[in-house]
Design goal:
mainly alpha; about 70% helix; about 0% strand; Arc Repressor Mutant, subunit A; homodimer; Tetracycline Repressor, domain 2; Homeodomain-like_sf (chains A, B)
Chain lengths: ~200, ~200
Amino acid sequence: MGTDDRAPGRPRSKEADAAILGAALELFIERGAEATSIEQVARRAGVTRATVYRRFPDKTRLLIATLEAAYGNPPRSPRIVDVEQLVAGWTLVLSDPRQRRLLRRVYGAIEDNPELARAYHDQFGRHRDQARREVFERARARGLLPADSDPDVVLDVLTGAGWQHLATRPDTGTADEVERFLRAVLHQVGYRPGRPVEGDQ
Amino acid sequence: MGTDDRAPGRPRSKEADAAILGAALELFIERGAEATSIEQVARRAGVTRATVYRRFPDKTRLLIATLEAAYGNPPRSPRIVDVEQLVAGWTLVLSDPRQRRLLRRVYGAIEDNPELARAYHDQFGRHRDQARREVFERARARGLLPADSDPDVVLDVLTGAGWQHLATRPDTGTADEVERFLRAVLHQVGYRPGRPVEGDQ
């Protein structure tokens, strides 16, 4: 640790934080985890390498902080009320070209940088997946999903459909197209939002 | 074109072909499309760069030929008879650690090397997807899938579930685990292999 750095939270330090995380996000989207280096991040952020290393001891921790900042920490919508809200949220993400590239880079990091993928899952994915699973459990309880549905499987199916959309559909699709895709997948797994909500079955 | 190369199909030439494609496959799995170069492939194959370039004018065409060889051309099982055979085939692929890494690299190439992903889809994916779609159409006609199923959606769901499995399950899983996963997904989309086959409904 150098002694020339200011106390955390002081304005210059916060500016450096934002510049570093912004540069890291850009580079991660442009090149992926493997081809991004602390050196490049420092150069693009206009700070020294030492300034980056004082905050992030290695590239993996820098990239985790970058994803954390990109997705919001705490997560922007920690409470997902129902399937409809989940569809709305995923539609926003999957119709945003920048988010699409970011997510494909996260998938690409699984192979080259498994610690990043694992840390990302531990810090964000697991938490959100639990909230989503509960949404599907409630939908099943309300009769909006077949009684023999497995919320874990529904979550795998919907997440997988997201990867498939990212892999096979153009990044120029509209929100309407994305929503139709997600609703077709949910219909195929038996989700029927129009069903009268009477009770558990 | 050099004049020192032998006619195609002569033993030495076939050996060089195999060495080049084998080296390219190894490097693609180890490093991905972006980090693989013709230079590295030549070195690992024990041939000159010129020998590689005489066969493949650029890296993308080399990698397409590599995938073609890895998956078999013509494809090893061009005819997929029914959903059960499809499950058996995918189970083999998804329980093979090397194939898993290869497929994640193919996904990773979408971002860095879209021509490769597109060419791969045009030459292989499209053809196989059509065969799979027909399998789901027949399953629906036989009452093994709900009457309102969309074969395209079922295919997106199953392919997506494959990406999800590759992203979230360890590469050490057994064929039994993979098959249970695929069957759970198919069950969720309404596939009921045990249903009496009486006719269209």
